[in-house]
Write a structure and sequence with these properties.
Helix content is about 45%, strand content about 10%. It has about 140 residues and is mainly alpha-helical. The chain has a domain of about 80 residues. The chain has a two-stranded antiparallel ribbon. The protein has a two-stranded antiparallel sheet with strand order 2-3. Helix 2 runs antiparallel to helix 3. The longest helix is centred in the first third of the chain and has 23 residues. The N and C termini lie far apart (about 100 Å).
Length: about 140
């Protein structure tokens, strides 16, 4: 009788297989661990030179070597993921989630009065004959 694998064991087997296939494809195209780490190391020390056209002197102006923060951050993220420096993230959720949008009757009545037809409605104030819209007076 075959032993049934747990989810963790199946995930481990699938991960090992994927890793083998990835390494095989990397060997075909000549990508080695040394080349990858060298590129990441170069990225961690990246600099950039900014250029600007100077109209007064009619020539290009070049800045000094500046730190290329964007490249360095992406290289650092790659190094962290390769070297497993980031702590594993596992989040477990427990409990239940219910969405209930029913309001108590007194709040529902208040809500309906406030937002009925987009106008504020106060039941204590009754409209009279003179409550028509006024025209602006001329100066």
């Amino acid at each position: 009788m075959k032993k049934r694998l747990t989810n963790e064991e199946m995930c481990q087997i699938a991960g090992d297989y994927a890793r083998k296939q990835t390494l095989k494809e990397c060997a075909i195209v000549g990508l080695t661990t040394r080349k990858t780490l060298k590129a990441i190391t170069e990225g961690l020390a990246a600099h950039e030179v900014k250029t600007n056209y100077d109209k007064d002197r009619a020539r290009w102006a070049y800045s000094n070597d500046l730190i290329d923060h964007k490249t360095r951050l992406s290289a650092a993220a790659l190094a962290i993921s390769i070297l497993d420096l980031k702590p594993p993230e596992k989040k477990e959720l427990t409990g239940s989630l219910t969405l209930n949008h029913e309001l108590p009757p007194e709040l529902q009545g208040m809500f309906d009065k406030i937002y009925s037809k987009g106008k504020l409605v106060n039941p204590k104030i009754k409209k009279g004959k003179n409550d028509k819209k006024r025209k602006p007076s001329k100066l």
